[in-house]
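Methods — Computational structure assignment.
A single polypeptide chain was analysed. Its primary sequence is given first, followed by the predicted tertiary structure written as structure tokens.
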Amino acid sequence: MTCDYFGKCGSCTLYDMNYEEQLNYKLSREKQRFQDITTMDFEVIRSDEEHFRNRAELRFWKNYDDEENPTLSYGMTSFEKNILEITNCSIVSKQISELMPKLLDEISQSEILNYKIYSVEFLGSTTNDMLVTLIYHKKLDSTWEKIAREVQERLNIKIIGRSRKQKLVLKEDFIKEELSINDNVFKFHYKEGGFTQPNTKVNIKMIEWVLNNIETKDDLCELYCGGGNFTIPLSTKFNKVLATEISKTSINSALTNCELNDISNIDFIRMSAQEFVEALNSVREFRRLKDINLSDYNFSTIFVDPPRSGLDDTTRELVKNFEQIIYISCNPETLHRDLKELIKSHQILKFSLFDQFSYSGHIETGVILKKTC
């Protein structure tokens, strides 16, 4: 990949390595990190080298070098923590890349649209659905809405306007996505403000890796399920699924995504992992579980995809009770901490690295474990 801003923009920290060097660096680093836990070979799931992000957040920056005619540009944070003006970005999807100059031109030409504009969020899909959220430091009025609707029509996108305590949805607040997983197509609605995996191709490979490497029997328990990204494909392999998530937005998305795929064997509960442990251990009752009998489930497998902090002590103890553990991690450091405890009762069967973010030091990790005692 080539980029005009390598060494300047703080997003691509591994700009001085080609892609093979990056992968070797990350693989070597993680093998060293986990060498006290396992010496098994790590599978590596590669990313495209460029145009791989279907989600992006950019600042807007006004340059007043010519005070009479200030210019508007996109801005990123430089290595020196300053604003770096950019005209393009090589890691965003082609869909976003092609839209960026067109949107900037529309906003620049409108005094209403560019006045006190702060940032933009792009959310794209493989179906060419595109959601653009424009964020302002001003109250948005009917004049802004009229002009924004015209831009929305011209660019064939969906626009949302945001300001303090204000959200204007001009068409829809979600995009439609279709993922082909093991030759089966799954439909999703990704809502604005909800979590989505930014690298769609690697996300598909992550889901396939899980499906192709686990033992599927009885029922599945999932913690931190989000909008059902893993839950829905996994539900086709288990009798029943019980999934938890703390975010109301994500739970609503998950329910919608079940309807889109005509799936009825999943129960979603809006509660934290800690609350679920309390419910499962009958520590206290929850009204949110009034229509669910936990004793009806015969769990063989638990799937966890926790935040960067990893599993808390209570949840880690719960996970040990399951015959099969599927652990997807966005933070190898906390994964290492958790695995040191989990291998006391389980054996690691599969270990994979998912390179979601080329040209950065970040790596996603997947581990499948089976109970030994």
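Note: The two ends are 48 Å apart (CA to CA).
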